[in-house]
Every structure is written in structure tokens, then in C-alpha cells.
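Dear colleagues,

For the upcoming journal club I promised to circulate an example of a predicted protein-ligand complex. I picked one with MRU because it came up in last month's discussion. The inputs are reproduced below in full, followed by the predicted structure.
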Amino acid sequence: MSKADSVRAIRWEADQLLLLDQRRLPQEELILRLGDYREVVAAIRNMAVRGAPAIGVTAAYAMALAAREAAPYPDWRERLRGGAEQIKAARPTAVNLAWAVDRQWTLAEQMGAGADVATTLLQAAHDLLEDDIAANRQMGAFGASLMPDGGVLTHCNTGSLATGGFGTALGVIRAAVAAGKALRVYADETRPWLQGARLTAWELQKDGIPFSLNVDGAAAALMQQGLIQAVIVGADRIAANGDAANKIGTYALAVLAHYHGIPFYVAAPLSTVDFAMAHGAGIVIEERPPEEVTHCAGLAVAPAGVQVRNPAFDVTPAALISAIITERGVARPSFAASLRELRGA
Ligand SMILES: CSC[C@@H](O)[C@@H](O)C(=O)COP(=O)(O)O
């Protein structure tokens, strides 16, 4: 496989959706071949594919598969609507999922009798994948100059694996390195799924970008030691006022960055902004199974029967965010007006 900035974790081949199984990385590059939208729903739910933009693109392909199944029947619209509801329910927090399903549904609804809904939705999914990569490259172009010569802390995985390709926050880091910035990445391991240790480290190593991996709890000490000059993360849903939901632990980093006077950046496409949601308090936070916390690689690390809280995301208040980097430019506080302007409303 080539450098990780061009890794394609989501592909369409021989009438099937191919997903690089992110649960198996970095040990194994296993490709899942899915021909039924229900299998795709399971892959989103069980984290074989994850990351907000990647989930959105995958959901668009799931809609194409559902359309292919429904198309021969006179009641294809009802069948497709049933599929759309299942796909939408796979995970609740990343707005890109519902956004992609709604886009595909609207397209299908507009089609007249005899139209080839399956082919149309498949082409729309291909377009969404290419648009996502283009958006990431644009974010990189807008965000590179914000990156310092120095330490950049990031959380979770926001790279090629979390998107159609290239990445959001990791895309900005890639673009900054390509532009000659002498930066070093500090990657949080990101408990409990270890997206930082397993996925971000895999991508950075493939690209030859200088980095080190740290446990999540080390972030404060790294900042105290003067090693971090900026924090950059992705987002799963950004409210209209700029409050941003992202992987659990992100809010803690924003508080720490504020205390240490370090800029805190969010990089996300405009499809991650939920303009219908006024504040972050309305964002539904996914609560995942307790075993993700009580077990590590199948081994129990906590006494049996303990009570667990396992929120997968938290919400960083807009007041702690220095800038939101999008494919149309950089939004600055106050974000409500700045984001609306970028959207073009
Ligand atoms: C470009 S990805 C942005 C976010 O989706 C990412 O930071 C994140 O929180 C992913 O969570 P995950 O639970 O791995 O899907």
C-alpha cells in the first residue's frame, strides 16, 4: 500500500463496497466485501469503519445498496425508506451519517417512474467520496499556515481512515508538513478504542511524519513542559454556535489548552456543521458498551460487575475553540455568523 495520505479505506469494486477493517489495524490490512446494506449498518455500528466523514460516505454507499435491493419492486420507495431509517440509526452522534442518508433519500424521492434509482445513488456515493477528499485537501490548504513549527497535539484518528482520504485535522497536519513546517505530532492513544495508537500512529508512520504516541493523561504534562504549541482535532457534529462534539477526551484537551494559552483548532467539513442545532447541549452523545472500558484486547482489566460510563464523545464549548477550519475557509469567533457566512447563507 502507498503512503497513508492516499490510503482509500472505502472503495467500490465489482458491485460491492470494500472497507478496510479498522478494528484489525495495525496488525492486519483486512478488506471487508459488503453487498447488503444491513452488513454496512453492522460495519458502522461495530467500528469496522469509523470517523464522521467516513461514516457519511459509507452511509451513502449503503443507500446505493438499499436502492439496488428495492429497485425491482413497485413499492421501492417504502423499501428504501425502511433501509434509510436503519442506516441512520447505526450511530447517533456524527451528523455526516444522517446528512448523507438524507441527501441520498432526497435524490431518490425526486426520481420519476422507470428511473434507475440504484445507478443514480451509486454515482452520488462516488461523487460524495471524491468531494470529501477534495474538501479535505482544501482544509489542508486553509489550515496549514495556522500550524506552528513545533509540537502539535491531536486526539483520536482524523486521517485517511476517518474520511474518504487525506483527513481533516490530520490532513491539515499533512498539508503543513508538505508546506515545510517543522512540526512534531503528539498523538493521544485515545482510550478505549485506541484510534490514536492503532490508526493515527499507523498513518503517521507510513507518511514519515515525526511523531510520538502518549497516553491520554500525559497531555497536561506535555503542555506544562512547553512541548505543545497547538492542538488540532476533528469533529463529529458542530452546532450552529460552534460548540463541537468529538471523541471523548477532546473537551479536556480544550480546557488544558486554554489554561496553558495554546491555540485549539477544530478541522471539519461544512457537512459536519448541524445548522439546525443551536447549541452543543442538544447533541446526542453515543454511550457505548461497558466491555470497551472493562476489557482491553479481550482481557478483563476491571473487576467483574463494575458499573461503567462509556460516553464515546464530549462537547467542547465554542468559547474554548480558536478557529474552525473548513473546506471554504477558516471560521473565527463568533462562530455562528462566521460559519453561516462560509456556508453562504
Ligand atoms: C475526521 S474524523 C472526526 C471525528 O469523527 C473523530 O475525531 C472521532 O471522534 C471519531 O470517533 P469514532 O468513534 O472513531 O468514530
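Two points we might discuss: The domain at 143-343 is CATH 3.40.50.10470 (Rossmann fold). The mean pLDDT is 96.

See you all on Thursday,
B. R.
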